Amino acid sequence: MATTDFIAAIELGSSHIAGIAGRKHSDGSIEVLAYACEDSAAFVRKGLVYNIDKAAHAIRCIIARLEGQMQHSIAKVYAGIGGQSLRTVENQVSRTLDEENIISSELVDQLCDENRDLPLADMCVLDVAPQEYKIDNTLHTDPVGVAGQRITGRYLNLIARQSLKKNLEQSFEKAGVKIADLLVAPTALAHAVLSENEMRAGCALVDLGAATTTVQVYKNNILRYLSVLPLGGNNITHDLANLKIEETEAEQLKLHYGDAFYQEAEDENATPATCLLDDGRSVKLRELNDIVGARAEEILANAWNQIQLSGYENELFSGIVLTGGNANLTNTETLFRSLSHTEKVRTAHSIQEAVQGERLPEDGRQNTLLGLLEAGTENCCVPEKPKPSPEPEQGSLDLDVEVVQKPEEQKPADAENSKGHKTGSTTSQSQKEETKTGKQEKKTWFRSLFDNIQKEMIEDSSDSMDDRKH
Fold first, then answer.
1. Contact 326, 208 (CB under 8 A)
2. Averaging pLDDT over each range in 64-68, 270-274, 403-407, which range is the top one?
3. CATH code of the domain containing 210
4. 124 lies in a domain?
5. What pairs with residue 330 in β-bridges?
6. Which is deepest, 43, 67, 129, 391, by most CB within 10 Å?
7. Does the pLDDT of residue 41 top 50, yes or no?
8. Quick one: what percent of the chain has pLDDT higher than 70?
9. Is pLDDT of 206 > 50?
10. Domain stop point among 111, 134, 160
11. CB count, 10 Å around CB of 188?
């Protein structure tokens, strides 16, 4: 890709708005060219933009910072959409043919279009994940080319409130930024974090965000279930603020001393561990982590319940993957294993592909943003305008233009190189000399003819006078 070729993406999360620009290389790696991040708590709540003016201002700031780092203008960006109202709904569409025939791609497209017309009150379909197609009595993932008379398509629709999409689009429109495509952020995250083997064998992805927790289930490389819980890391911070401290200090306590599965030493004579607050007070780690552990257990228990509701809890042969900023809480994996009785639990702090260029912290917070960048396909750079070609000076001869001249003044056409120029010049001079000689000869002949006529007239006049005298 050229220097001016890049993909740009923006994610409006509940805790921060982040923008990124980078390239995708042929080996699958990603090169980060620019990155910018700002706080979004003042205009985003649980994934929903509630203050469009502030969101538009933040988007303009992110774009300006990205352009300043790259020294190139951004024409459009990929935007991620997600939030509390995002969920999946199953639907089936059937069609019976007059006789047994081969299923065509046109028929499959018609079924998909009919599925999108699903009546939803105050909701809209953001994306569709086809499940299987039942042709007569057999199931197929790819029905095109299969013979049958009756086909039933099963679809998993990703839906959300219309206000979620509308407010997001209005924010970008007010910011004067064109959206290249609106991508469902959780699915972009899943394709960046999960391996192909995990998605095929069966895997649940739990994204522990600041204000929401998103649960996805994959089996046979197909999304089977998605739901968003209105619980996140901010709930832990708010609970710690009940210790009569500011939320900023509570957040720091959570990051430095928080433990989701805290176990204190059994020695009764040992001095209880404490942490010092900014106002000089000390808090026992046992008391602090009783608060942290209780809220963390509530979040993870609800996430496990959603996996059970999906119906795939016994088919997740690749286990469970945790990601997101709240997954950095100490012993989160241990607590989830204890709740789900599942041993295969891992935390994804980064995406599957290698990331080059500007270094990003590997804490899981940028995984969704990198997923949006990886999902992008169009060049987001403003194309450079071609420079106008300089006009030829007056009096100069453009050799590419054919000049039509009078026959007696026509010059030779061979003038493409220096040798040709010399030959053409010599030939032209010779023609001029021949033309001049021809003109002189014509003039001499005409003069001689005129003199002879004049002489004859004089002689005739003299003879006439002589006849009169006689």
1. yes
2. 64-68
3. 3.30.420.40
4. yes
5. 259
6. 43
7. yes
8. 80
9. yes
10. 160
11. 26
At 18, list the tokens.
């982040």
Q: Does residue 210 lie within any of the structural domains?
A: yes
What range does the domain containing 441 cover?
Answer: 420-461
In a domain, 433, yes or no: yes
Give the CA dihedral 314, 315, 318, 324, nearest 10 degrees. -70
- What are the pLDDT digits (tens) for 249-268? 999 999 999 999 998 776 66
pLDDT of residue 423: 43
For residue 57, being part of any structural domain is answered with no
In tens, the pLDDT along 157-195 reads: 999 999 999 999 999 999 999 999 999 999 999 999 999
Distance between CA atoms of residues 163 and 180, nearest Å: 20
Q: How confident is residue 35, by pLDDT bands cut at 50, 70 and 90?
A: very high
Residue with the two structure tokens 């500011």: 246
Determine contact, residues 52/165, Cβ cutoff 8 Å.
Answer: no
Q: Within this chain, do residues 117 and 258 fall inside the same structural domain, yes or no?
A: no
Q: How far apart are CA 65 and CA 78, in angstroms?
A: 16
**Are the C-beta atoms of 73 and 67 separated by less than 8 Å?**
yes
CATH code, domain with 114 = 3.30.1490.110
- What predicted TM-score, i.e. pTM, was given to this entire model? 0.80
